[in-house]
Amino acid sequence: MAADSSKQFWKRSAKLPGSIQPVYGAQHPPLDPRLTKNFIKDRSKVNALPLKSKKASSFHEFARNTSDAWDIGDDEDEDFSFQTLNSKVAKATAAQVLENHSKLRVKPERTPSALNEMPTNCKVIKSSSEAQLSRTSEDTCVRNPLHKQQSLPLRPIIPLVARISDQNASGAPPMTVREKTRLEKFRQLLSNHNTDLDELRKCSWPGVPREVRPVTWRLLSGYLPANMERRKLTLQRKREEYFGFIEQYYDSRNEEHHQDTYRQIHIDIPRTNPLIPLFQQPLVQEIFERILFIWAIRHPASGYVQGINDLVTPFFVVFLSEYVEEDVENFDVTNLSQDVLRSIEADSFWCMSKLLDGIQDNYTFAQPGIQKKVKALEELVSRIDEQVHNHFRKYEVEYLQFAFRWMNNLLMRELPLRCTIRLWDTYQSEPEGFSHFHLYVCAAFLIKWRKEILDEEDFQQVQRRKKTGWQESL
Known about the structure:
- This is TBC1 domain family member 22B.
- The protein is mainly α.
- Helix content is 54%, strand content 0%.
- Among the domains are: 177-357, Helicase, Ruva Protein, domain 3 (Orthogonal Bundle), CATH 1.10.8; 368-473, Ypt/Rab-GAP domain of gyp1p, domain 3 (Cyclin A, domain 1), CATH 1.10.472.
- The chain is globular and about 75 Å long.
């Protein structure tokens, strides 16, 4: 078979996956490597002292070779030449920035009459990242309030459940040449009469641009056919099929033999991402209840299990971002038409179903899939870092005690949603991303914080160290 003859991308690539690069929020974006390289080059001319070359350790070589789209310079096959930064222009720009900041420190209050004279066609600030970029234009434009929000203050710290706006708002910094080139490459692939899914997976592994993520996820999950002409009819048929299930089965939630399932779903839905306003809207919670109930009664071998509710959120956010250009986390879904909401709901259901088809044994009786995956994680860590493995054994820390949730929720309780969406770009580009490749991601996190783990000497401290370490890094 063709599938057997072709190796998985992560196996045949020299860049073994597993190293998670730092994720920068909108408040503190990474430095532009073009400017950094030129700066270092200029400094090296002045500083003629030779630097002693230090051979990188195998772990650092591994990390450097596995940089992905969270790192700005991941595509080695794309070579762009940039002009050297002019020192006079740099000094002038720096002086201008200092002058602007000094003006912002002491800013006169606007009078109501002055506000009335402002132009009415001002641009709405859709996220705090855009607010930071538009700070210098506040004298000429007043921001319109978002739903349930009178202002958008800057947030110095990104919480564990980070703002979706960092990943899914249109108010992002202008795209670089490299990002535009990658986006054009995706659009060219997706516009072909028959999309090359192998090439699409290869391009998606380092991350999918926001503009094409919805259609890319539909294709990679197997929900949409590769043939362009069949996509529209397939979407129409599958969406009608889903709402046929709603008409046929949803009323049965009031029947006695389905009461326990529906009651548990009804309890879990408000707990889904409680810090994000989008998921606390009654209409969104109704959508989630229908999706989870229909899936549960169509899969009686497992039924609904706590944790499945989290798996709907990335799909819902991605498909919502196809219709919403503003801040998704505060967006009021009642502003969308009924047809759009139905499309988002049906697509989220089918893509979540495709995901769960590959890991359903995680949720059947006694959850044997999770048991096997935790055991596989233990064996993997014992081979790649025997010291960490022996540390767990010494203090009687069972892998099942901390890794059960990692497998049950696919790390969604540990990672900000924006990171989960990015991670799922890679998961969906792998044939067994949500089952097999997920183990390597979990192992990579353990190795990432190995020093902090080894410093602790009891289970509670190890657990607390892992949790706080993740929060500080993400």
